[in-house]
Amino acid sequence: MGKDKEDQQGLSPMEMLLSGLAGCSMMDIIDILKKKRQVPVEFKTVVRGNQRINEYPHSFTEYQIEYVLWGETLKDKDVEQAIKLSEEKYCSVGGTLSKSGPIHSKFRILKPGEPS
Questions:
Q1: At what angle do helices 76-85 and 13-35 cross, to 10 degrees?
Q2: What is the pTM of this model?
């Protein structure tokens, strides 16, 4: 007997994996940007995963993560480099999940107060 999504409380285990990817990479990116004196005022991620649905286990086959950063002085090259370092070197969650499929990322830099 399965539960409807509306009845679910909290994250599913698969959503927790995606949340772990977002949190791990965000922590890396913030640390790297701090060293470059490029600290965002606000930062959020939108992360999605594509799952196999026709066979078990319903594992992820690829991931998409979008980073949205707000700040007056953030530079594209610094944000891009921080993301690359996180993805290729520091994020253990990303390093683990990338073995099951590619991680595609993109970013946007917005002015403080600008809607995402």
A1: 130
A2: 0.88
